[in-house]
Specification:
The chain is α+β, with helices and mostly antiparallel strands and 92 residues long. It has four helices and four strands.
């Protein structure tokens, strides 16, 4: 798969979220271009990553499925969207 994706992570704040998602991206040959994260009301963790997949060999659906184990292990919700879809959804 070529191009860039937006990876959004939501859930209760806990140790290891950034490390787990970053490690998985590295395994999948994704390069983190930009990352932002915050914690709302001392509890809700939110992170958005812009990831380049130029070196990844997985199809988009396979790439998305790779995050299910992290979602289950850390009780998170992880969304993966093509960059163009993300931009179109957030255009006013």
């Amino acid at each position: 798969m070529k191009g860039r994706v937006i990876v959004t992570v939501l859930g209760s704040d806990k140790s290891g979220i950034v490390a787990s998602v970053s490690k998985k991206l590295c395994e999948l040959k994704g390069n983190i271009i930009d990352i932002t994260q915050t914690i709302f009301d001392k509890e809700l963790f939110a992170m958005i990553m812009l990831v380049d997949l130029a070196d990844s060999t997985l199809e988009f659906d396979e790439f998305k499925k790779e995050f299910k184990s992290i979602e289950n292990e850390l009780n998170l919700k992880i969304y993966v969207q093509h960059e163009d879809i993300f931009k179109a959804m957030h255009r006013i």
